[in-house]
Amino acid sequence: MTIDWKGVMPAVTTKFTDKDTLDLSMFTTNIEAQLSAGVHGIILGGTLGEASTLNNAEKSILVKTTVEIVKGKVPVIINIAEQSTKGAIEAAKKAEEDGANGLMMLPPMRYKAGDRETVVYFKEVAKNTDLPIMIYNNPVDYKIEVTLEMFEELIKLDNIQAVKESTRDISNITRIKNRFGDRLKILSGVDTLALESLLMGADGWVAGLVCAFPEETVAIYELQKAGRIKEAIAIYRWFLPLLELDINPKLVQNIKLAEVATGIGTENVRAPRLPLIGEERKNVLQIIENGLKTRPMLPDYKSLVG
């Protein structure tokens, strides 16, 4: 499958049972809700997917299960976040074997690689897979920035096709467009900058709160794409207090609480993460409750898809 890097691509959470095993039943419920809302791809094993706590067998199960659920309607993409180049190549080959359609890739984990090391890391993986790749550029959380000069080298490989732009610098959208045109597709990776990024030319949105509110997220994308900016802004303004739950160290717990509130998830997280308690939990629940009370009536955004 060729990936058209655009639209809303949920970075889905991984569902766990009370016994800390994969909850494939609730996982399926959530993926089906995403598809029904009109998302354009599914991304597995990101930060929200608690990838650092998943073993290789679980990642494989998630890929195979998702491929079976989506039945080719949208691409299935899995994140690669490995400590070694060898491990990343092996993960890419396994993802391809399991039926994934593409990869999202973080720089090397733990070791703070230099620019040359980071470029070689990405290139070596790209040379060892036929899958299209989106580079995840998040220097705020992962301490390594993929600069424009580094992308000049990376795009020499045809299967490095997109960037998940999470630098928090909105002007970087314009820098990338000025430098690379449409050669490097841009997907916003920060929920609280998503609409701004789309209006500045980003092609899509790797979203977090979409896990709990898929229809509202896709509506914002489709409305802005159709030029109905005021309607998109109105939904976005309602959404912002919820979206801010994504730019928080407890984003997984926050978003899983929101999924519970909308009936498409559970609160179970994998240790060392623990469910929220006390004032922190109360505050998050209040934000979610306020959002549900004022949830907007959506226009028929699906009729805008063309």
TrEMBL record:
Any single GO CC term annotated in Swiss-Prot or TrEMBL for this entry: cytosol
Q: What is this protein called?
A: 4-hydroxy-tetrahydrodipicolinate synthase
Q: Name one GO molecular function term.
A: N-acetylneuraminate lyase activity
Species per Swiss-Prot/TrEMBL record: Aquimarina amphilecti
Short name of one Pfam family: DHDPS
Family the entry assigns:
Belongs to the DapA family.
Enumerate the SMART domains for this protein.
DHDPS (SM01130)
UniProt binding sites for pyruvate: V206
